[in-house]
Amino acid sequence: MNDHAAYQPPTDRRWLRTVLLGGAFLILLIGFPLIWLGSEFYAAQQRLAAIRLIEEQGGEIYRPYDAPDEADLSLAQRLAMAAMGEEINSNVMSVMWTGENIGSVLPALSYVRELQTLEIHDTTLSEAETAAIAKLPLEVILLSDVQLSPDQLQQLATNESLTNIVLEGPAASHEHLKRLPALGTLRWVGLSDTRLSDDSLQPLTKIMFLSALNISRVELESEEALAPLRQLKDLKILNLVDLPIDDSLFDKIAPLKHLEQLTLDKSKKSPELVDPQKAMETIGSLSNLKYLRLMNLPVSNEALQSISRATQLEELMCDGSQITDAGVQHLLKLKKLNHLRIHGAQLTDESIRELAKLPVLQSIELHDGSLRVRSNNFGVSPTAPGGGP
């Protein structure tokens, strides 16, 4: 008989082993949640300290309008909020920094949760600072009156989450724009307060996924400075604000058949259009337009006839000082119109009642600047005096 096979440990030893194993399991059962809770508290403290440091150093914090839903928070996050206040779990949507020494807050920015936008104003960035900014998981960067080299701007190409960039002043120079194609994830480009030569915008045609372009307050070398626009055939949004707009522009935007939003704001120094009707015909040919805003470009009844060909329009805003009741018949073709802003238009109540027939129209703004809404029948009685329709 094998004595070793028959051996059984004493009962007290088996009991001790069971106790030790059970104790170890209990420690693990309690310890892991405690470690998890502790890490959440520590991370929450770091976020709060980072936010306070940014504000103390002069940065401005912008939070989402809606606080995070408590149901979406983990148990640890709810406990942290109970112990340290609601601020501990609030997200930061945007940070704005003005002036020098942004390096003092760059480490803190890496702890800010859900940071999407960084605005930097009136400073000079070092290469180290630009490299640190490129590591932040930003979607939007705005550089206003910021001094940095074209090579530094290209450093931002390492940020694979960056979709929007706005360059105002020195950072929007011709040499800087040449580096933008390296930022391969860009969808939106904004340019302002600079001078555009005839080929400054050419690099934008090499940005593969560019779908939105905003240009404002720029000086044009000639009308050909905007010529590259005709090559941006995948644009969905084009905003040209406070620009010297002339008849030649409309030939440049005619090929942009995918446009859904168009804003044209002619600078006050620009001469009047020679053939405004042809310009409006071009706009009417953009069949995918949903949002159209025309400023300092007076729109007549005849112009409305052309614009009404863009039957997908959901919002129309224009100078309506030349629009009369006769033009309303053209607006009635826009069955998807939600919001109508025709400033200066002198329309009678009868025309307003006609506009009320548009199935989804929600608001009208006319000459007095007051907003008329569907809930009060746009400020007119539903029937004409005398009981007529």
Structure description:
It comes from Blastopirellula marina. It is found in: Membrane. This is Leucine Rich repeats (2 copies). Its main location: membrane. One of its GO terms (cellular component) is membrane. The chain is α/β, with parallel strands linked by helices and 389 residues long. The chain has a domain at 269-389: Ribonuclease Inhibitor (Leucine-rich repeat, LRR (right-handed beta-alpha superhelix)), CATH 3.80.10.10. The chain has 12 helices and 16 strands. A 14-stranded mixed β-sheet has the order 1-2-3-4-5-6-8-10-11-12-13-14-15-16, with helices on one face. It has a two-stranded parallel ribbon with strand order 7-9. Helix 6 links the parallel strand 4 and strand 5 (164-168). Helix 2 (11-56) packs across helix 3 and helix 9 (276-284) packs parallel to helix 10 (301-307). The longest helix is centred in the first third of the chain and has 46 residues, at 11-56. The protein is globular and about 105 Å long. The N and C termini lie far apart (113 Å).
